[in-house]
């Protein structure tokens, strides 16, 4: 029931020079499904990532942070990523950490690299031990079938409750040089700002210095994966990774001030937004794709507060599901978003182009049929003007349906 | 589908000397239902209230605050409360405020009191004009059928999506004098801390000075109505009112330091907790009543943060609905509750008496069947020990079911 999910043609996902992808059916939780992915990166690439803010972060997240820190301190570069689905290796304490390290060691042994050159990722059920023997047994298969054109298979290999694989690819010209970008993402529930049970991997063949890539990954995440919410739950495992292989003819980008950086930044951010929005479009039980845009705030923080209050409200979300213009629920959410000195008399609320509320109440010209017309659409924009300043923020979310409850009530069974 | 909702015998709801209650069928939104309630209070009573923190507070809330402020400045005491269901008179701007004042004026005219001696309350749909003519037309009927024994009818008259009327009553002996307390509440959705679409009215016949009653209403609300959540939405209309008629033989309570105050405070708080918990038991679509108790926090605020993160998580709530001990979702909620320096290695999570998680992971002695046994119950306690200090907080919530979605997708239709 994904919402206006674009058709993805595997043949249109460009290889990125310097990256190969291979998967295995390792039977981590269920048989006969791709559940292990290995992404190999040629020597000389730079890699950067942002991770969940959840204090109960998963063991692989801890290990990723350690290994990336080591690179920043001058250690050897990252050469491989390994992802398993079916088990999050989160809430697993010290034994979970040992298992994550063991995964890296085993892949390193098989690939002839050092353990700290491997980044591990897990997604799935929390609080259960990761079946490390099955994962290790699957690694040779994943390594054996690596290839540069496997982006679509890779997208399938990281799915959990996703109903569709999520991938995007494009080529851009920067300073006359072609740069190729391809990426995959996964996630459908437990999705909220500051990462969610979402994984995103985006590779491109430009060369980017480590500090610049560190800045770029944060810039892109803050405008993409950190702007989506399905249910307000921030996962333990969220990770978004950029891989810059440096194989294109574009000279290396060593400063965030260069025009080439700006061009690459915009291309990466736009693709990250696409990958993030694919997650919302395939949100658990989603029937509507909703953009919440808050304008005229005193600062971005309060705009995001209001946007998330609307985007998280079960009452607002069920009204969207019902196509019911019960728009007072949006006003209520704005009111409790936590802006203590909000002057409700200055707030305006639009549904697409329809001015619903102003001057603390319903717009006198508002007609129920206008609201009804917008609510019936599968893509809806809620626009709120706070009348306090020039800041703005946008998030993307979906409605709350019967299927959301069914999916999450049945997830483990 | 209310959860272990106690059978309420109308005959067991004691009259409170100095209070009469009358209702009308005023056809505010739907025909043939009690939708207007008038509570009359004899001269000499003190009245205090706490109200929603929502910035889009309803017009009647604004008027209540004004009228209570006037009393505190030495004006005449409150003599009547008027409640309508079917329309919240919220998000209605200046016209809504005029309508709320007109309601007070009309009731005052009919009852021979001043408009500022009336407190108005509304609950129902937001953003639609209150049909003031119907409300005014219903007032004579409500005044005509007032009586001291009408607490059960009064509880019925304030219901919206509630499936059952909510009332409680008891008598306590303080310093050898009998004090009688009776109260009603309503609310089923849009329920969150700092009040919700909930109304609570609690009257007793002790005499209490205004400043003491102001303190008491806050004390009781903070330990009852401000500790429940159904869906995390804070309503525009929430109000909790204490009425102290002063008709009992107990000498007036003029200090929060007196033993009589302590006894009354505990009786009022306990009854407020009962009335608040009735709201959760009748929560929209609720099938489980869940107590979330967070202990060993550095302060009460962080304990509440953690408790609400658990209580609001749709993933946790659907797991309870499914009786699925998918308890990693609780760990994830603790992790994203916002305690930046939380040491997850010190956190312990219990489900009733079952120790589920410790030392950052699953308790080695935990067995799935123990978790399953607790999850199948209709009353479940989640206990979290943070290992940071001595503070604690408790909230009450319910699960998230298919019926919640149905009720809120269909509310206006």
Automatic annotation (TrEMBL), chains A, B:
The name of this protein is Arginine biosynthesis bifunctional protein ArgJ
Q: Per its UniProt record, what CDD domains does this chain match?
A: OAT
Report the EC number(s), separated by commas if there are several: 2.3.1.35, 2.3.1.1
Cross-referenced PANTHER family, in alphabetical order? ARGININE BIOSYNTHESIS BIFUNCTIONAL PROTEIN ARGJ, ARGININE BIOSYNTHESIS BIFUNCTIONAL PROTEIN ARGJ, MITOCHONDRIAL
Provenance organism:
Paraburkholderia kururiensis
According to its UniProt entry, what is the function of this protein?
Catalyzes two activities which are involved in the cyclic version of arginine biosynthesis: the synthesis of N-acetylglutamate from glutamate and acetyl-CoA as the acetyl donor, and of ornithine by transacetylation between N(2)-acetylornithine and glutamate.
Site annotation (Involved in the stabilization of negative charge on the oxyanion by the formation of the oxyanion hole): which residues? 123-124
Q: In which pathway does it act?
A: Amino-acid biosynthesis; L-arginine biosynthesis; L-ornithine and N-acetyl-L-glutamate from L-glutamate and N(2)-acetyl-L-ornithine (cyclic): step 1/1; Amino-acid biosynthesis; L-arginine biosynthesis; N(2)-acetyl-L-ornithine from L-glutamate: step 1/4
Q: Which residues form the active site?
A: 197
């Amino acid at each position: 029931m994904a919402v206006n999910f674009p058709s993805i043609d595997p043949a249109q996902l460009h290889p990125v020079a310097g990256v190969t992808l291979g998967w295995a059916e390792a039977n981590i939780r269920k048989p006969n499904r791709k559940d292990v992915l290995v992404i190999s990166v040629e020597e000389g690439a730079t890699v950067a990532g942002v991770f969940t803010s959840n204090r109960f972060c998963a063991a692989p997240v801890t290990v990723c942070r350690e290994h990336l820190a080591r690179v920043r301190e001058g250690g050897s570069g990252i050469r491989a990523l390994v992802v398993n689905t079916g088990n999050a290796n989160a809430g697993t304490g010290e034994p979970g950490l040992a298992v994550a390290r063991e995964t890296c060691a085993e892949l390193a042994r098989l690939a002839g690299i050092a353990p700290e050159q491997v980044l591990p990722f897990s997604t799935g059920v929390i609080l259960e031990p990761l079946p490390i023997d099955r994962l290790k047994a699957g690694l040779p298969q994943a390594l054996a079938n690596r290839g540069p054109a496997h982006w679509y298979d890779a997208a399938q290999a990281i799915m959990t409750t996703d109903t569709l694989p999520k991938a995007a690819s494009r080529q851009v010209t920067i300073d006359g040089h072609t740069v190729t970008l391809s990426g995959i993402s996964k996630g459908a529930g437990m999705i909220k700002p500051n990462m969610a049970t979402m994984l995103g991997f985006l590779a491109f063949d430009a060369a980017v210095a480590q500090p610049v890539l560190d800045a770029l990954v944060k810039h892109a995440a803050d405008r993409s994966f950190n702007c989506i919410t399905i249910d307000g739950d921030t996962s333990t495992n969220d990770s978004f990774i950029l891989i810059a292989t440096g194989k294109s003819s574009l000279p290396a980008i060593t400063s965030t001030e260069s025009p080439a950086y700006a061009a690459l930044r915009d291309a990466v951010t736009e693709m990250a937004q696409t990958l993030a929005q694919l997650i919302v479009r395939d949100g658990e039980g989603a029937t509507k794709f909703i953009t919440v845009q808050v304008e005229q705030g005193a600062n971005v923080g309060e705009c995001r507060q209001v946007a998330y209050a609307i985007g998280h409200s079960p009452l607002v979300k069920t009204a969207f599901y019902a196509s019911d213009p019960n728009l007072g629920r949006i006003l209520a959410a704005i009111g409790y978003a936590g802006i203590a000195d909000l002057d409700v008399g200055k707030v305006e609320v639009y549904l697409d182009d329809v001015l619903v509320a102003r001057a603390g109440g319903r717009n006198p010209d508002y007609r129920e049929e206008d609201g009804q017309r917008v609510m019936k659409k599968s893509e809806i924009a809620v626009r709120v003007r706070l009348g306090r300043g020039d800041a703005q923020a946008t998030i993307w979310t979906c409605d709350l349906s019967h299927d959301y409850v069914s999916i999450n009530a049945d997830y483990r069974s």
